[in-house]
């Protein structure tokens, strides 16, 4: 159904809400709502344009809320209607949050429900939406960013008949490797990225060490009353995967300390700034399902936490040198982040789940005929480049653009140029 239509600068929006099965294999079972916003350029509203579906990064993140027809969206609107999908559980789709999770029952029921929120279910949703909007024979172009690229690979595996072409940025996931391989590789890239940051700002090493030491010796409370720990400080390393991440950390550190009453202490604005960069208020599914997006036929058993034991440089108490982590999710987060507390038991069950179904059909991908253009980042700390290269070689009809010009947020940083090049690659002669 269509809920609303409205205008924004340079474009017109139509909001859609679809009622879809929780489990598409059981169409008569429970349902949920999935929201999508359709955009069209003001000067092309009356035209029959092809559609581009954007698959957002995550898992557990809502689609972009654009305010102007700029960046990759502005480029896409030159050729397409753009559909921004709030993947199930996010945004205006039936939400999964700390407030709504308890309504699902006890932890086992919650875990069984959450198991239906991976790439396979998202693609099933997309196919149902495509058929409703475009008809059984209609096809669209998909653009998958990060985890959205994982979804694109699933789409190519399971429903290529719905695709005109596939574009992927920073999301060529390994097709077969377990979570242990993924985290072992990303820990190595994270180490290099830490080194690169401190090479640019060598004075920051001492500054962060002082902050971490202060946290070991003092009880510093965040605005929600939870203690700020060294582990949470290290989680600021999420910034390292972005093009301006070095500067974000450097400028954050500048205001770390203040002298008051003759004593040096962590400044309240610094503590609040750390808090604002964390929390999972909007993205609890990211924590609950992050390792599950790599699970096929085996349990992850908190792979990032287990493999952290192989990274002695991350133990500040032992080394006295602070090193940042990345997007790894650890069990302690479900204790230190209040918005994740209600997910703790279900997350434990998901980490122990052995019977995850496969996400990718390797044979189908090898025989793929849908034009695919993919961008892989050489220094990506979220999606390992070596594994992306393996996947690129395993998918038929795929053209790969490898670069160190961007970090993982390339589509956000220079989306107009990136999308323009990927479209040219996908449309070019084979």
What are the SSEs and their pairings?
Blueprint: E1 2-8, E2 11-21, E3 31-41, E4 51-55, H1 71-76, E5 81-86, H2 107-114, H3 119-134, E6 140-145, H4 147-158, E7 163-169, H5 179-200, H6 204-217, H7 230-234, H8 245-254, E8 257-260, E9 263-266, H9 268-276, H10 284-289, H11 303-308, H12 316-319, H13 333-336, H14 344-352, H15 362-366, E10 372-377, H16 385-394, E11 398-403, H17 410-413, H18 415-427
Parallel strand pairs: 4-5, 4-6, 6-7, 7-10, 10-11
Antiparallel strand pairs: 1-2, 2-3, 3-5, 8-9
Descriptive key words:
single chain; 430 residues; Rossmann fold; 2 domains; nine-stranded mixed beta sheet; 18 helices
Give a description of the structure.
The protein has 430 residues and is an alpha/beta fold. Helix content is 38%, strand content 17%. The chain has helices spanning 71-76, 107-114, 119-134, 147-158, 179-200, 204-217, 230-234, 245-254, 268-276, 284-289, 303-308, 316-319, 333-336, 344-352, 362-366, 385-394, 410-413, 415-427; strands at residues 2-8, 11-21, 31-41, 51-55, 81-86, 140-145, 163-169, 257-260, 263-266, 372-377, 398-403. It has a nine-stranded mixed sheet with strand order 1-2-3-5-4-6-7-10-11, with helices on both faces. A hairpin with a 2-residue loop joins β1 (2-8) and β2. α2 packs across α14 (344-352) and α3 (119-134) packs across α4. The two termini are 39 Å apart.
